[in-house]
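The instructor's notes for this session suggest beginning with a concrete chain rather than abstract definitions. Hand out the sequence below and ask the class to guess, before any prediction is shown, which regions might be ordered.
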Amino acid sequence: MARLRHWLLVACFVVGLGAALVVMRLDARVRAYLAGPPLGGARMYAAPTPLAVGEGVPGGSLARKLDRLGYRPVGDPAHALAPGEYRAAGTTIEFAERPSPVSWAAAPRRVRVGLDGARVTEIEDLEGGALDRLELEPEVLAVLGGGGATLGASPELPPPACRSAVLAAEDRHFFFHPGVDPLAIARALVADLRAHAVAQGASTLTQQLVKNAFLSPRRTLSRKLREGVLALLLEARASKEEILARYVGSVYLGVDGGLPVHGFSEAAQVYFGKPLGELEPAECALLAGIIRSPNGLSPRRRPRAALARRNRVLEVMVQDGLDKSVGAEAMATPLKLAPPRARPVAALYVAAEVARELPRLLPRAVAEAPGLSVFTSIDADAQREAERATRHGVAALERGRRRRAPLQAALVALDPHTGRVRALVGGRDYGSSPLDRAVRSRRQPGSAFKPFVYVAALDPARRGEAPARTVVSPVEDEPLRVRVGARVWEPVNYDGTFAGTIPLEDALAESRNAATVRVALDVGLDAVARAAADLGIASPLPRVPALALGVAETSLLELTAAYGVFARGGLRRPPTLVVAVASADGETLYAAPPEEERVLAPGVAYLVTHLLEGVIDRGTGRPAREAGLTGSAAGKTGTTDDTRDAWFVGFTPEVVAGVWVGLDGGGPTGLTGAQGALPIWTDFVRATSGEASERDFPVPEDIVWRDVDPESGQLATAGCPITRREPFLAGTEPQEPCPLHREAWTAVGEEIGGAVRGGGRAIGSTGRRLGEWFRRLFR
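After discussion, reveal the predicted structure:
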C-alpha cells in the first residue's frame, strides 16, 4: 500500500510538471501575442508594382491600380492630398504615398506621373525632382491566420453601439466571467442533451479570440482544453477592454472579392463604405449579427437572413439598455450596402502554398508568431490575369461537353530572369477544391518532356559517343520496335502516320514520337535523364525508352521552372515564392538567398529555344499564332495517352508560363495540349505581355547563322528549292554545299550540252530526263 501511494505521488508530480510546462508554453504565446500588433495573423503581400519611364503601367491603368491599393480619389484641385489620396487630371495622376509595409522601401513622397495612354512618360517627385523609376506599395494578397485590416500600434476602439452589439450577439456576460463561463457551459450541455446533438455553443468572447489567434478549427477535446487555458491566461494578462478591442479588430466577417474580411474597421468600409467610428446602431448590429455565420448570413448574398439576425441582435441590445426608440428606428432601417469595392486578386492557392512554406523557412514558433509580414514574388496584375484566364479557359472548354467530373486547370508563371513565381493558380476554384495542382500534383508531361531529349542531342558535353547533331540534322521518323523486358514496344505518332527522314527541328515542332525515341536511344537514356535532372526535374526518371515521351511524372511548377533555364540562357534558378518575412516590429526574419547555377552553355540553351520557337511558328503550337500572338515566343505542347493530361509550357522574353488541363481522377478529356492548355496559355501571355513581345531572345556569341537546305542539312545553293536560316554552335556549322540539288543542277547542265551536240533526238530524250529532275527538285 505504501508503495502504491509512492507511485501515485510520483505520477501526480510528473503529470503536474507536464501540465505546468504546457501552461508556461501557452503563457509565452499569450505574452507574445499581446506584445505584437493587435490583429495577429500574417499579412501576405504581392511584389511592389514598378513604374518606369517609357514602359507600360502594369495592369494597364494607374488609377485602377491605386484604387486596388485603397487610395481615395479626390476631385478638388485645391485640396492638399493626404497620404493615401490621388487626383487624376488630364494625362497626369498625382498621389501622396502611404508608408510602405516594406521596411526597405523609400520614404513616402508626393508624386506626379505623366501618362500617354497606358505608357509612363514622366515621373516627378514634387519635392525632389524627376525620377526614372518608382515602386508602388505592394498589394495585400491574403491574411494568414487571424489577421485584420491594419497593422497599427494599438487596436481601434469600437464606438459604443458596436461594443454593445458584439456583447449582445456573442457574450452578454463578458465583463462577469474570467474567460470561461461555467453557466454558459451548463446551459449548452442541457440544450445539447435535449436536442441529442450540438445545439448551442458555450464559447465566451475570450475563447473565440484565442481560438482565432492560436488554434485550428478542428473540434477535439485537447483543442478545447487548450482553448480554455489560453482564455484564462489572456484574461490574466490583459484588461477586458483590450480583449474586446482585439476581438472587434480581428473577428472574421466574410469575404470581399475573394479576400477574407477581418475586423469591424475593414467590414465598415466593405459593407458600408464608411469609417468604423461613423457606424449607426443598425449597422453595428448587422456586423455583430453575422459573426455567427459570416457566409451563411452574408448581407450581399442572403440579405433577408442578415436583416432577421440584425433585428434579433437589436432586440437583445434593447434588453441590455439601448433606448427603445433608437432600437425601433434601427429595426425599421432598410439594408443599405455600399457598392462592392475593387479588390486585389484572391490568390487563395498562393496563400495556402505560403502557409506551407513558412514552417520550412522559419522555426515553427517564429512562423506562428503574430503580426508577420510575408513578402512574395507574386505580380498582382499577372495573378489576376492568371486566375481570369484559367477560369474563362476551363469554362470555354466545358461548353457543349457532357462530362460528369469537372475539368481542372492549373497555371504557373515565372519571371524569366530571376526565376521567381509571378502567378500561381492551383485549380479552377479553391473553395470547392483546395488541392494545388500546380505544385502538389504530379502527372505525366507527355511530349512537353521532349526538349530534354534534344538538349542531350545538341549539347556536345552530353552526347558522349553519339554522332554530333545540329538543328537540321536528318532524323528517321519511321516505324520502330524496341524490346523492353519481355515485350516489344512500338512508339507511334499521334496522327498514326510517319514522316520519313526529316530535320531534327521538324521532329520536335511536329512532336514526332518515333523520331524522338530514336534520338533518345542514340544519345542514351542516361544522358536524357541527366539533362532533365540538371535543368531541375527532381522527380524519379526511369531509364526506359518511353522516358523520351514523358512517362516520368512531374509537377507543373517543376516543369515550368526547367523551361525557364532555356529562357535565361542556361542558368538554373529555383522558383522562389516567398522573398522575405518581417516580424511585427519590422525586423527581417528571412530573405530568400540568391541561387544560380549554370547547367547549359548559352549556345545550347539558345538552340533549344530556337527549336521551341519552331513549335509555335509552324508546329503543334501554331494555334497561338492563329489566336493573335506575335513576336518572340517558344514552347511545347504535351498530351498523354488517352488524352488524360493536356500541357503547354512556353516562354517569351517577358514571362515563362506553364498550363495543365485534366481531370482529378485521371480520366480521358478528349483534349490535346494544343486544344486544352495552349488557349489558356495564349490568353494569359497576351494579357500580361501584349500580343507582340517588344524584345527578341538574345543570341549568344557562340552562335553562328547559315542558310541551309533542310533536306540535306548542308549549305544552301542556288538550286535548293527551300532554304532556312539556322543557328549553329560555332564549329558545328555545315561546311559543304548541298549535295542533293548541286548534283542535280550539274547534271542538268551536262545534259543540255549533250543535247545541243547530239541533235533533235538527243534533245527529246534530255527533255524527258529534265522533267524527272524538276520533279525531284520540287517534290
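Then share the key points. Residues 146-155, 747-770, 772-779 have pLDDT under 50 and may be disordered. Residues 207 and 231 are 5 Å apart (CA to CA).
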